[in-house]
Amino acid sequence: MSKSFNSVKNLSVKELDSRMVDLKKELMKLQSQVATRTLPEKPGRIKQIKRTIARIITVKNQKEVSQKG
Predict the structure, then answer these.
(1) Rounded Cα distance, 34 and 14, in Å
(2) Phi, psi at 10, each rounded to 5°
(3) Of 11, 43, 64, 69, whose CB has the highest number of CB atoms within 10 Å?
(4) Are 53 and 20 spatial neighbours (Cβ–Cβ below 8 Å)?
(5) What's the fold here for domain 3-68?
(6) Is 12 exposed, middle or buried (0-12, 13-18, 19+ CB in 10 A)?
(7) Residue 17, Cβ neighbours under 10 Å: how many?
(8) Distance CA 11, CA 8 (A)
(9) H helices present in the chain, as ranges
(10) pLDDT tens, 33-55?
């Protein structure tokens, strides 16, 4: 497992939700920069944010399944 997955795995559901909101805002900002043909400072950050959002969704789903079962 990667270091970022372990850091996400240890967060509570509320923390995961707030982190996902922040990441989605940042992603929207970066994508609007790309759409207006302005180069973002860190173009690789878009890919990194998308992966982190996917990790958060995965962890939330795992926590929901473990609470039901």
Answers:
(1) 30
(2) -85, 0
(3) 11
(4) yes
(5) Helix Hairpins (1.10.287)
(6) exposed
(7) 13
(8) 6
(9) 3-9, 13-35, 45-68
(10) 999 999 888 989 999 999 999 99
